[in-house]
Amino acid sequence: MPDVTPTPRGRRSRTWTAIKTWVDPLVVMIIAVFLLGLLAPASGAFATGLDRVTTGAVVLLFFLYGARMATSEVWDGLRNWRLQGGMLASTYLLFPVLGLAVQLLPDSVLPEDLQTGLLYLSLLPSTIQSSVVFTSIARGNVAGAICGATVSNVLGIVLTPLLVGVLMSRAGGPVGGSAGATLLQLLLPFVLGQLLQPKIGAWVRAHKPLTLITDRSTILLVAYGSVSEAEASGVWDDLTVGVLVVLVALCGVLLTVMLLATWSGGWLLRLSRADRIALLMCGSKKSLATGLPMANVLFGPVAAAGVALPVIVFHQLQLATCAVIARRLAATDPEQQPARVAA
């Protein structure tokens, strides 16, 4: 009878496989940079350099997406009206309704300024880069995600201040810089990548680790930069543990409801699995990059800190949660199962 006793190397391999099943490496890295931002926030010249590096990473990421994606896929994403309509409805209809529901809570549960912050969070556009990154990781419709998240962000430049003025009884002035940043950092690199796609597209698709490393690096840079900015500005100085727990719990409830609603809504809209993933990742997120600059314009200095905190907390929570979901969706992709069985 052959000896089937597992070797030490085999045992270590199975142990590592089990660990990777239950512990997501990307989540571990996000938590690590979160703690690093609290303990050693970026400041001075280093903070300036970090901001430039993050901007460069975002530009490179969207250039690579444009270069590796066939133009026909982009047009298919724009023509998919059910997917695009589902994203906009999730971002600017369902999410604001949930934000208004939070306002029914008594001040003894959550201070009024943080309730205002949660309502403001619900009025923001979808984030672009992390939505697209997680859609890519989960093997979803990247073209649809790019189109939907970008349209959401561009519309948000007008819709968010308008909704703030209507629902929060505040007069919002023009939001400067957001449109330019969206065009220069996201759309322009993507268009340039598309123009060069016939020449370099095959090379980019053949070197998948290049895009993979850029994906992860961009998320970690954004996470560290946002926590550093909050810590350096003293946003959390007067925050008690109890209030923070309630805020995190409410952000978790909002995220859970939106994840369930977008995934179920994709089924009701009869979307394909790839489109449902794009709707899930884009329709459940809110943009920190757009939200913080807008808060500085739409609110006074005193209110800005309370408004910004829910946006920061939700941002970190959506990154960690969607990292797990994206990897689980990729692992259960029906198109990949035959290859795994064969392997």
Overview of the molecule:
The protein is an all-alpha fold and 343 residues long. 80% of the residues lie in helices and 0% in strands. The protein contains 15 helices and no strands. Helix 5 (81-102) packs parallel to helix 8 (142-167), helix 7 packs antiparallel against helix 8 (142-167) and helix 7 crosses helix 10. The model is unreliable at 16-22, 170-179 and 338-343 (pLDDT under 50).
Which tags fit this structure?
about 350 residues, mainly alpha, globular
Q: Which regions are unreliable across 5 or more consecutive residues at pLDDT < 50?
A: 16-22, 170-179, 338-343
Strand content: under 5%
Largest sheet: none
Shape, per Cα inertia axes? globular
Question: What is the residue-averaged pLDDT?
Answer: 80
| Rg, Å, rounded | 21 Å
How helix-rich are the residues, as a percent range?
over 70%
Strand tally, please?
Answer: 0
| Category from helices, strands and their pairing | mainly alpha
Helix and strand arrangement:
Blueprint: H1 8-22, H2 25-39, H3 44-68, H4 71-79, H5 81-102, H6 112-122, H7 129-137, H8 142-167, H9 178-206, H10 208-233, H11 241-268, H12 273-283, H13 288-298, H14 301-331, H15 337-342
Helix pairs in contact: 2-10, 2-14, 3-9, 3-10, 4-8, 5-6, 5-8, 5-11, 5-12, 6-14, 7-8, 7-10, 7-12, 7-14, 8-9, 8-12, 10-14, 11-12, 11-14, 13-14
Summarize it.
The protein is mainly α and 343 residues long. It has 15 helices and no strands.
